[in-house]
Amino acid sequence: MAFSLSSAPALSSSSHAAFLMPRLSLLRRLSVPRHGRRLFAVAQQQQEQEQWSVAKLARICPAAESIFHLTMDISDAPSLGTSYTMPGQYLQARAASEPSPSVFLSIASPPALAAKEGVLEFLVKSVEGSAAGVLCAMREGEEVELSPVMGRGFNIPEIEPTPEFPSVFIFATGTGISPIRSLIESGFDADKRPDVRLYYGARNLQRMAYQDRFKHWESSGIKIIPVLSRPDDSWKGERGYVQAAFARAKQISDPFETGAVLCGHKQMTEIRTNLPFTVDVGHLSTVHRLFAVHVGHLSTVHRLFAVHVGHLSTVYRLFTVHNGHLYRPAC
Hints:
Number of helices: 8
Order of helices and strands: EHEEHEEHEHEEHEHEEHEHEEEE
Structural class: alpha/beta
Organism: Amborella trichopoda
GO molecular function, one term: ferredoxin-NADP+ reductase activity
CATH superfamily of the largest domain: Nucleotide-binding domain of ferredoxin-NADP reductase (FNR) module
InterPro entries: FAD-bd_FR_type, FNR_nucleotide-bd, OxRdtase_FAD/NAD-bd, Riboflavin_synthase-like_b-brl
Protein name: FAD-binding FR-type domain-containing protein
Strand order of the largest sheet: 1-12-8-9-10-11
Domain FAD-binding FR-type: 50-157
């Protein structure tokens, strides 16, 4: 089973994040050792010394209630476009007009758009008094500063070759849909897989971004299941939270031929993630990779991990990246 997990930058919690699949827990919450905290501090200092690029806010428009679609013109910073190669990568952004804190943003547009048109697109939730709020209050034509592109992105080869992973389940809440858009529009042969679903959770339709892209995504082979936790009385679709909607649907028929992607708030990465089939952890042959990227004061977390039953003895490898710098904590 290939299992990818990431968390898009988010400033508030959501009950949608409590995604729990029944039965076995494979991941446990790990504390960061003291020497890791020291490395975090060093990484922060190094990040400040890195070269930031100036870009222009080419377009800003509402995407949903309190959520904005931002397009950054990076034609004067071509290195940003060439370094953005995989869906799921991210960067920091801040207003250039005055000293201001930065915010970590997952890149919503696919890498091909950066290469072709010289732009990066983002989905940003405006929160008053925050760095994200400053960006959402800017006007078109104003300058922003962007850090180098960070992260490895989604490890798409983990769900290849396509015939070996006929099912892929995607779960997103809130602005967690941002890197999922990049994944979908970059393509992962969804039309060649018989069961690809996107469970997309929001409070109501007014807070659900990218509804105008649903038909395009569905035409690529993805079944979209919107899940609203507080819909109005006219809503006829799924109610509650994404985990409940998934539980009501058909479960995984063969977990070893299934991929999963989770994107949402920090709580989605803190939970004990359970696979929907019974396996004794001590007998798993291989646990390939667990990548955790901790970003910002809010500890917004990007996690990309893959579980695969293979030929070797059980192996856990944990790499934590803070502000783009790698260290390996003691397990």
